Task: structure prediction
Amino acid sequence: MQSIRKIWEVYGKPSYVDQIKVSGESKHKLVNLDPVHVESTDLGKWLLANIGEIENCKFFICAPNSWGEVHIDGGIPPRNCAINIPIYNCEQGLMNWFSNEPDDHKFISNENTKVHSTNKNRDIDFWVPAEQMVLTSPALVRTNIWHNIDNRDNNKHRVVFSFRFQDNPEFDAVKEKLSRFLFNKF
Result:
């Protein structure tokens, strides 16, 4: 079975390199991947059996020493959650969720993504972190509140693989499905 890193090398990285050739470096890039490349892997089969059908999967690439744009995932309604898996250089970049809301709000939709954005998405001083985490293992994350990646202390590209599911399940519903696989360590 192909590992997620192998999928990155075969499908994700070449698309990322092609994007850079066309649009140049940016702070945050994504590579959409057809779920068919994942569905036949052990992980894909496990996700289907335990959570549901994969709607889409993406590689997110955050540039070194950068502050990613603050956003909310998805269309209307926003995407509720995703499972994110660290691929490369994730041990320093922070994922932030913010407690405050901007006054403005705009919806952006293109061939690669749908997000809710704001004119304050790069205003570091505006945002008040409510929670932060370093992604060192697979995690279920909320994507329907303002969040971003702070990769300013990381001098390497940060690569994450993200899964989103059919029917946009609620965070708590996915958490409940995963609860039998989780345990507390004291």
